[in-house]
């Protein structure tokens, strides 16, 4: 499989309360004009030389109820992606749910969402790559601990409830998709975080937060957590049976560890437990190595960007820095499969994490909202052109089989034969512990 150079068209749609206290939905596709300009947007993706696009239908207008769907927009857009031979990495749930579901406190969300995922995979059987739930940790944190989105709660119990429902939804969706497409691959887009202690008094809190940052992926991959995290989960509503159900999952070998990194992903923890942005201290390479060492999965850099500032070259410098970090971890032996600038166009209200409906345009994209290319877009196109043929197309650490849209017509029998010859992802043998055997590190 060739190295996956990617971009994305963000389909965020959390609900927030506006200045008048009225709950409104923040639909980033609407704010950025994608519904009107989607054909042009796909043209721009091809103009860059990008073959992989993080993309998905808006869940709140597509999923109308249990077993009720409006596929009109998805039918048009995905047919056009297939015609262009653009490979989508399908983002099924991005920070929100339809009004009829409510929010991430709904205990039925996971099973309902699995039905939606199965319906999508059945309607679009040529799609192979998925991110069922985007940034599970951030989704739960912003919705149920920070009080910014959706349920707008601020307790540990609400956060743990959201985490378990979101991760369970992701797991059940993977199973449902695999029933339809056995060679499906799941590129988990998750935020890469680190918490730095500002003083010795802050060390216990920083250590705690550096464990919490892994919770969504630990549960998703069936990895045993530390005794401290186990007590935290049980104290805040997770049951022993629910915990062991996560441990029993065996889907890790279908997954790519997609990790996102922004200048806001590192934090400074003060002695009183409060946190604030620290800016880039360790950087992508160091933090990615921490995640890889924990999960031993192939990696894809699935999101990054930076505002184009007054000099006009800030985002270009950030692009080259991120790319240098990708090459660094790859040269150190981490199997890195791809890189993504996110997203294709400028975003709206990203400066408030979408929690304020201000309509403020943030110059973060490869193109502006008039669809004119930004300096970082030109730099990314050059980077792709220069590096595409240089990077090795295979890693000795794993075997990956992907099917481009133009080959989807080969049919189920041909795909099954290909699948039998080359299983999608082979985890290193040392990462496979026997059932019931303890892992290292004092995990439970």
From TrEMBL:
Gene3D superfamilies per record: Glycosidases
Pfam families in UniProt: Glyco_hydro_1
UniProt key word Hydrolase: yes
Location of the region described as Disordered in the Swiss-Prot/TrEMBL record: 425-444
This protein's record includes keyword Nucleotide-binding: no
GO molecular function: hydrolase activity, hydrolyzing O-glycosyl compounds
InterPro entries tied to this protein: GH, Glyco_hydro_1
Protein name (record): Glycoside hydrolase family 1
Highest taxon in the source lineage: Bacteria
Keywords linked to the UniProt accession: Hydrolase
